[in-house]
Amino acid sequence: HMPVDQIVISDYGSEPQLDKTISHFTDIDSRIIVVRDDTPEKWILGWAYNSVLMGIEPNSIIAKIDCDDEATPKLISWIGHIAELLGDNDVVYGNWLNRYKLGDHYPSSGLFIANSSLIQRVGGFNQHILTYGYEDIDLYTRLRESGAQMIDAPPYLLHSEPHDRELSFNQISPDWKSVDSSLGSLGYREMNN
Hints:
Elements (H helix, E strand, L loop, with lengths): L6 E5 L6 H4 L1 H6 L3 E5 L8 H9 L7 E4 L4 E3 L1 H13 L4 E4 L2 H7 L9 E4 H6 L13 H11 L3 E4 L5 E3 L33
Parallel strand pairs: 1-2, 5-7
Antiparallel strand pairs: 3-6, 4-8, 5-6
């Protein structure tokens, strides 16, 4: 399998500081790098993710997992295998529609594996989405529209922390079930908490 050269963690102004919380791991594994931003006026996922993603070397294979997802041993092994097979235009991702239709054993939309150049080509995460959630679905829509080959991740890779949908997109769309992969139509409309 392809080796993991770096494990980059985005710490977007957390308290306590993440690098202090996980210092045991960073002391024993030099691949773990914590990128910390102490300047945010407001916690915005797109900014936090882009602070790491946009600085990664072009043509690197990246695997992104949300902080509220727990990786299973199967995922760690699977990432290396997929990285070897991944084409420059391929994105393996957690398709939230599978999760909704087929059950919680499917990965949440917070998981993807792709070539960093592909993510950078579409501008990374939309920093105008200011609510919790759906920034990943917006990214996947823009990737699909740019011609990327979207490949559903298989089940049983993650254990996801359940969330109340009332905390996120329901603030704007009262019928979250009607939201589908056409979220790219949101464009740069600002969505606030």
